[in-house]
Amino acid sequence: MTVAEHERLPEVTERNPSLEAKLHAMWESAPGLRGWLSTVDHKEIGVLYLVTAFGFLVAGGIEAVFMRLQLSGPNQHLLTPEQYNQLFSMHGNTMIFWYAFPVLSGFSNYFWPLLLGARDMAFPRLNAFSYWVFLASGIFVYCSFLIGAAPNDGWFNYPPYGSREFNPGPNIDFYLLGLIFFGISLTAGGINFVVTTLRARCPGMSVNRFPIVIWGTLSANAAGLLAVPTVSAACLMLWLDRNFGTHFFNAANGGQPLLWQHLFWMFAHPWVYMIVLPAMGIVSDALPVFCRRPLVGYTAVALSTVVTMMIGFGLWVHHMFATGLPVLGMSFFAATSILISLPSGVQLFSWLATIWTGRPVFTTAFYFFAGFIVLFVIGGVSGFVTGSVPVDWQLTDTYWVVAHIHYVLIGINLFPVVGAIYFWFPKITGRMLDERLGKLNFWVMFIGFNLGFFPMHFTGLMGMPRRIYTYPAGLGWTTLNVITTVGSFILAIGILLFFINVLISLRRGAIAGPNPWDAPSLEWSVPSPPPPYNFAVIPSVASRHPLWEERLQEADGTSVLDRGLVLDHHHETLAVTAMDGEPDLILKMPSESYVPISLTLCISALFAGLISHWWWLAAAGTVVGIGVAIAWLWPLPEAGQREAPADV
Amino acid sequence: MDRNRRAEKASSRPDEKTGTSAQLQKLDRATGRISLAVFFLLSASAPARADAPMAYTVGFGARNFPVVNLLWALLIVSLLVILIVTGLVIAGVLRPRDVPRSTDPRLVPLERPERGLAWIYIGTAISAAVLVGAAIWTFSTLAAVSGPPRDAKVKIHVIGHQWWWEVRYDSDDTSRIFTTANEIHIPAGEPVRVELSSVDVIHSFWVPQLSGKTDLIPGQRNDTWIEADRPGTYRGQCGEYCGLQHAHMALAVISEQPAQFQSWWTHQLEGPPASQTETVAAGETNFIAKCGICHAVRGTTAGGRLGPDLSHLMTRQTIAAGTLPNTPGYLSGWIADPQHIKPGNLMPLLDLSGAQLAAIRQFLENLK
């Protein structure tokens, strides 16, 4: 009996140049634009994710600049009310949906297989697809600006203001369809991350050896799979209300406006944790590198990451304390809102202990991670205060919450993200970012951010509501707003310095070598930038820190990185058992393909048809899309899928 | 209005609560006072309260005292946490080490110190104690303010509109029910029950120095209550984004001595004084023809309900939901071009001649 390809026993050899040359030819993407459009390489997709997410960060930042100018004094007329409302809505949507999560997916895409010891994600084409849909959905929503009808009901889009009666233009339809569209990307990406973690790893990579960023991203994506359906359903319902006269949210006909708030926050509260947990994971992994010791309390941090995500599903009502809900129900959500600080506290004390008991090394990345801890605490306590129901009745919908969300999004997402770029840029490009410019970059961002956003807490305590396009003089808000405008411009300059550093260092940065930081995890065991196949032979690990274990004497056995399984029949990687990381099967992977981008184009046509009510276009997109999906699912000879039936 | 001393009055007010809850209240107040003192030390440069009418770091009346105290306590705890952690980060980074300071991790040897976990145990234990304390205080405050301390004799119904507030005073005596807009008079020292609903989108009723927000949601009736322990004017503003002119949807609560409040109420029920001049009479005719579809004035045939009730307009301090001072100049400007200051509001540009405009304005000025 012949053994199926995926069950064969592969040989074991040393890493050697001829094997590397063979794998290189096999895994390399096509050159030029063709390669980018058809790539399934997780590293290229990761770079696309990062670059695109930073593009959205810039777009959202430009929107913020206009808003800050409008608010720099009382009764200003730079923007009309409608322009202001569109800008603040799109600023929120852009930063929260199209920047904050995708940027983390960018890191995860690039580093996931490298951290886990695999050659690629479990579903490479699905990976490309989730990127293209992310891009297309972002472009879709931004098309609304072309006709002057961008979403104008904030990032949480409450009906009835979002209903057709009060908002007759296509603005809200762009929001609703855009989020459903984006949800496809989140779902595809989420499935891929979860399955990859469970199956596509190297031998010995048991769950208790995962880097914390894996725990963070796994929790976030598993949560996404549970949370995204509620918002997609809510968006579909409101879209039906608006376009076909259903009454889900229409009180006059027995609908319930509050239903939207429940459905939206059931998604959006977990979402807030989804956009910070992977970033916190990055800090938990990278901070110890610059403290020259392993993370304090690995198990506690890993568990608290998962627990935070779980509790994150149980406090959506704390966004709705002012809606007149029963006191007993609110008490429950107040308790969860206050107690969720505990697992976050575990992580905080772990970082503090890591710094105290370690030997800090003063790199730019370390500055960002240490600065992050301070911002994390400010964002954390300002949220804890809003968990207290009676106090929240005052704080909600004021600039206090604006301050809080920015400490969370900028402090706990952007700062670790920029720090992570300083940390991983050498791996991605082979060159170091400039450290002197980097430290300037840090201080300008840190000072600008705190100068701009810390006073917002006081603006909130002074009673300034959020989402107002102007305000009268004499309420004590003017000076604070001037300070915020100045600070946010300094922050913008800091971010600009970061981009300048990236552009300069791409060409002129010092050559990095495989492991410039002497870091412990698997991605640093391969050259910088990593070869298309990641690992010439599949490594096997015996500890949490394969590159440190000898010096720390922490392993029972020894990790073997230069000698391992040879998987060189087309694109292949190893499948392991879910918990223990025992070798199980050989995964046969597809190579480059235009199918993901083609399917994305079909779905784009579908959504273009839905927004414009050109039903023929929607129908055409659907029909062609089904054809493309069939092509996608057609068995591939190189993946061994056509021979498979013969063995049965 | 004298708001320069914090309302210590609460402690001298007859306390109807007994036992534990009274003790809790006392504790709350004591803590509140300490918090307040600490804050003023911290923020000596903070603007005086008269310059910050929307600041809810001060509160007046039984609805807001316990909340303000809790707010201060949480703010102080938060500030302490921030200071302690920032200090720990800085000290942890700068603490002298056995190896020279470096910017290259390859030059600093690795170590696996055993200590460290104690940070997590101790830190989490302290946090848990503080958090449980905060939760208990939250629940007791929630219980204390969820209803008025005694039956509210005055009941009003506030109805949200894009972008103004309809206010209906309720009474068992139907002849004393009346409607007004944007300015709410209440008797000082008395709890007032407020019923909330909306005819269009979601708004939120918020008078920071008297009470936190409660939403006005179409298809739903919400209840809240307010109390001002002393006479004065308290500014409020819509607290939930409600569209184009969310920024210009303010209100005022005017607290008066009970006798003054009762005479204000009685006065509101009356019709306008008889037209003394021909212009005013012409103004009334024009008003009924041009404005009466949307606006009502009691005692005339103008009975529109789409816009604010303008009976006794001259007793109000502002027009256009707290947007402009109520002076003849602003009033003329507003009627002549309502879309200039508050673009997008539902009041159309009326094609009025100069004479019509002047007449209508004089009619309105007569609504004392």
Can you give a write-up of this model?
The complex is a heterodimer of chains A (648) and B (368). Helices cover 63% and strands 4% of the residues of chain A. Chain A is built from 21 helices and five strands. In chain A, β4 and β5 (583-588) form a beta hairpin. Chain A is globular. Chain B folds into three domains: 9-145, no CATH class; 154-256, Sandwich (Immunoglobulin-like); 278-365, Immunoglobulin-like (Sandwich), CATH 2.60.40.420. Chain B is built from nine helices and twelve strands. Chain B has a five-stranded mixed beta sheet, with no helix packed on it. The longest helix of chain B has 30 residues, at 65-94. The two termini of chain B are 22 Å apart. The relative contact order of chain B is 0.10. Mean pLDDT of chain B is 88; it is low at 1-21 and 40-48. At the A-B interface, α4, α11, α12, α13 and α14 of A face α3, α4 and β7 of B.
Per DSSP, the total helix count of chain B is 9
- End-to-end C-alpha gap of chain B: 22 Å
Number of domains of chain B: 3
Oligomerization state:
heterodimer
Cα distance spanning the termini of chain A: 11 Å
On the 0 to 100 scale, the average pLDDT of chain B is 88
CA-based shape of chain B: elongated
For the biggest β-sheet of chain A, the strand order reads 1-3-2
Name of the top-level CATH class of the largest domain in chain A: Mainly Alpha
C-alpha-based Rg of chain B, rounded: 27 Å
Classification by helices and strands of chain A: mainly alpha
Q: What is the domain total for the residues of chain A?
A: 2
Strand/helix succession of chain B: HHHHEEEEEEEEEEHHEEHHH
CATH homologous superfamily title of the largest domain in chain A: Cytochrome c oxidase-like, subunit I domain
